[in-house]
Amino acid sequence: MNSIFNSIALKLRTFMFMRILRSCDEFLRTKSMRLSIGTRELGEKTKLLVTSQESQDWCLILHGKIYDKNFYDYLTNNLNEFRNSSPELKIILATYRDEFYPLLEQFTKKLRIDLVAVKDVGQLPSPYPQSLGQQIATISAGIERARSLNFKYVAKLRVDQKIELKTFIQLASKVFNLFPPGDKRFSTRVWSTSYNTYINRYFGISDMFMFGSTEIMSIFWKNASPQEILLFNHDLKNKEVQEILYDFSIPETWLGFRFMNSVEVERVGVENLNSDFWRKYAGVINSEAIGFAWGKSNDWFSTNFHSYNWFRSLYSRDLAELRFENWLTKYL
Q1: How far is Cα of residue 300 from the mean position of the Cα atoms in its chain?
Q2: Cα separation of 309 and 235, whole Å?
Q3: How do beta strands 90-96 and 161-162 pair?
Q4: Of all residues in the chain, what percent are helix, strand and coil, respectively (each to 5)?
Q5: Taking a C-beta distance cutoff of 8 angstroms, is the pair 197, 330 a contact?
Q6: What span, in angstroms and rounded, lies between the C-alpha atoms of 64 and 184?
Q7: Cα dihedral 152→157→163→166 (10° resolution)
Q8: Phi and psi dihedrals of 104, rounded to 5?
């Protein structure tokens, strides 16, 4: 019975719509104009990112080396907070098989956290970013585990840092969906926070906290051996990047340029490439919006006022943060 009424209602709405169109057409003809109606097939609706306590689409990855007992305690306290805050969230920890690994095996099993053992690839020689290869190895291992579990989005965080998880969950799907990437190959941008993201640094997105679709994060953090990194650096000397070659000793610049070298075929010059990076692929939110904190910085900053002000950009223009409002006005 309902289907009959729905059919009749649809026919009535169609009839009324056609009468309105006919009236419009008659009026326009008196003005020597005609009404033309076109139709088009609707494309597939873009699926929006949804972050929630129960969402099975995204996971949290923590990665890096645990240097001492203080690091271990800081990490395990944060993991306890994350699990209490979001009991169903998938959490992945990618770290080295060292003296803390047996303790982590027991701890992560109790909290239902995936533990991924990563081989230490060692440091790079100076003047290259010495820990870059190690950083890439741990993050890419975590992302690959997420990919194998079919997670569509990943958030990544170093073992010596934390965020307010509930705040991030509430903010992510509200903000990130408003700024889709300018490249239709990807469903999200690579997002980071303003802390350690600098206005005057090429491709200067902070590599501390990041969020994005698994596809785009896999490209940004594609695994590379130390030999492959050195070969890429050697190749940089043959490209039009001489004016910022020194900046490639900064991990963020190196990672951002490598990403753009992967997704942008056309060489448009460093300045334009940097603008395209922020305009099409990357985004930044203010660190305090998700309660970002760096564990090892707290005591050091509290006893070193001048360094604190240097990092907070009160004395150094070169270290001015690229904040959310700057990103909007400068690139979008």
Answers
A1: 28
A2: 37
A3: unpaired
A4: 50, 15, 35
A5: no
A6: 32
A7: 20
A8: -65, -35
Distance in angstroms (rounded) separating the CA atoms of residues 244 and 270: 8
Q: Give the architecture-level CATH label for domain 58-331.
A: Alpha-Beta Complex (3.90)
pLDDT in the model for residue 124: 86
Question: What's the residue count for the chain?
Answer: 332
For residue range 264-302, list pLDDT tens digits in order: 766 667 888 899 999 999 999 999 999 999 876 544 444
> What type of residue is 160?
D
Alpha helices in 67-131 (DSSP H): 69-85, 101-111
Note whether 218 and 147 are within 8 A (CB): yes
**DSSP category for residue 289:** G
Question: Domain extents for the chain?
Answer: 58-331
Q: Using CA atoms, how far apart are residues 174 and 108, in angstroms rounded to an integer?
A: 31
Chain centroid to Cα 168, Å, comes to 13
Check: pTM over 0.85? Answer yes or no.
Answer: no
Structure confidence by residue, pLDDT tens digits, 6-36: 555 555 455 555 565 566 666 667 766 665 5
Q: Which amino acid is at 315?
A: Y
Q: How is residue 286 written in tokens?
A: 């203010």
d(CA 207, CA 217): 11
